[in-house]
Amino acid sequence: KAREYAGTPKAELSLPKELKAADLLNFICAEYNLENFKNTLILALNEDYVEDSEELVLLEEGDELAVIPPISGG
């Protein structure tokens, strides 16, 4: 559902080299219409989960940032 709201499965962004994870998530949610999902999304940078929203994220050209929606199973 989140992909439908975002309107794309993949995007390229120009971002500052460092910012807090919470600020990064806020930017992505605002840019891609994901505000309704913000409290349930998880970020991963180069396949490593960003665990703390206060963590400083250091970005370099070519990094892969994933926005992961809630995963359910059963």
UniProtKB/TrEMBL annotation:
InterPro entries, A to Z: Beta-grasp_dom_sf (IPR012675), MOCS2A (IPR044672), Mopterin_synth/thiamin_S_b (IPR016155), ThiS/MoaD-like (IPR003749)
GO biological process, one term: Mo-molybdopterin cofactor biosynthetic process
Keyword hit for Magnesium: no
CDD domains documented for this protein: Ubl_MoaD
Molecular function (Gene Ontology), one example: nucleotide binding
GO cellular component, one term: molybdopterin adenylyltransferase complex
Keyword terms, alphabetized: Nucleotide-binding
Ranges in coiled-coil conformation: none
Name of the protein this chain belongs to: Molybdopterin synthase sulfur carrier subunit
Organism, as annotated: Megaselia scalaris (Humpbacked fly)
